[in-house]
Amino acid sequence: MSKLSDRAEHYRSEMQEALDYIWKHPETGYQEWQTHAYLADAFRKLGYELVEAGDIPGFYTDLDTGRPGPCLLIMGELDALNCPNHPDNTNGKAHACGHCAQTTALLGVAGALKEEGALDGLSGKIRLMAVPAEELIEIAWRDEIRKEGKIHYFGGKPEFMRRGMMDGVDMAMMIHTTSNKPEHYGGISKGSNGMVAFTAAFEGVASHAGGSPDKGVNALYAANQALSAINAIRETFRDSDHIRVHPIIDIGGNSVNIIPDKVVIESYVRGATMEAILDANRKVDRAMAGAAASIGAKLSISTRPGYYIRLNDTGMALAMKEAMEEILETVHYDMDEWGTGCSDIGDLGAVMPTVHPHISGAVGHGHGDDYYITSFESACMDSAKVQLVFTELLLGNEAARAKEIVANYKPDFATMQDYFDFMDGLISDKEAVRYNEDGTVTLDFA
């Protein structure tokens, strides 16, 4: 076993305490202040100086080996989910995706790397980062703080990119838990979907639901028609594009005896390529606009950039496979396997090589009310050790492997600014259904 990975054992008790605390203090994205404070204090006790985001949670710290080489970013995510039915929820929130295990493992990595002699034989730099807001939820609220200028992107990693907190990084990784797998299991796949997010506000006319429904325009019926129309176009999505559209109703009316005059739908459009996502998004906009017009309702649609396509770099994936095989009992490696969820590490992957594997240690359904971290050994200790072995593989031998991976990578965007320009081009606010003075209706779904 790697000498560096052995050092994670020295922080077992601190990691167990961290997992327990973070599990019991779930917070959703851009509001993870308790988790931030706990981790920041733990890092400072290890002797780290932190660069904090300031007005949002999250921080990073750098380790410099003193020898030239690329900078490897290792991340852990801070946020939880709104899961009011989870038995362990706190204020309706729970860590039903296992990010508490990521940050616990990150603490173990931080402890091991701070020990005397830990960086001997390594070249380059290591950046350790606690990142907020991976789960793209509470879209309306995030859009409000975006309009206030507090954030620009809904996801923590692209927001950190915008703030310069990824500057100087050459390659990035993190490990996510997976559920219902054997102990000491790891999995590496090709990648997963990207997405855009939207809110659609249907505007009708309020009226007495019993006495004069004919005087109203029912925004809820318009939204229902829109959901039916979206369902009716699902078979036009190609299987190979892995399109996923899954709306929820945020606002469904105010009182049972009033015709609803405002209903808001929130959704993602996910897919395996940005071209497929944008094509499907146009179809969804058209379906909603037609549905609203058929009822006589108005419709405004706000589309926001979500996450870029996540593609694991082959060189990074092979190094991760080797690291996992040193620590774990079972490693599933399939670079043809595709996931239909999303992660904002894909946004980093648009400009640098990344890898985002999975490790066992949980049970239940991800994002479900039966999700629990059941194996501290797999989800936390194994994860920390794998990350330390991976670090040695990339930055050992004068960082030869890391240099080769960086040199061979072909990013989708030459610079972060090019990536920002593309993502900002996805921002759209439009009046999708307009009623003209001459009695005609204009639909905007381009």
Describe the structure.
- By secondary structure, the chain is α+β, with helices and mostly antiparallel strands.
- It folds into two domains: 3-191 and 309-422, 3-Layer(aba) Sandwich (Aminopeptidase), CATH 3.40.630.10; 195-307 and 426-443, 2-Layer Sandwich (Alpha-Beta Plaits), CATH 3.30.70.360.
- 36% of the residues lie in helices and 26% in strands.
- The chain contains twelve helices and 20 strands.
- It has helices spanning 3-6, 12-24, 33-45, 99-114, 139-147, 156-162, 219-232, 274-295, 314-327, 345-349, 376-408, 416-424, and strands spanning 51-52, 59-64, 71-77, 81-82, 93-94, 125-131, 171-173, 176-179, 185-203, 244-245, 248-251, 262-271, 298-307, 310-311, 330-342, 354-355, 358-363, 372-373, 428-435, 441-443.
- The strands form three sheets. Strands 8, 9, 10, 11, 12, 13, 14, 15, 17, 18, 19 and 20 form a twelve-stranded mixed β-sheet that branches. The protein has a six-stranded mixed β-sheet with strand order 1-2-6-3-7-16, with helices on both faces. Strands 4-5 form a two-stranded antiparallel ribbon.
- A hairpin with a 5-residue loop joins β19 (428-435) and β20.
- The radius of gyration is 23 Å and the shape is elongated.
- The model has no long low-confidence stretch (mean pLDDT 97).
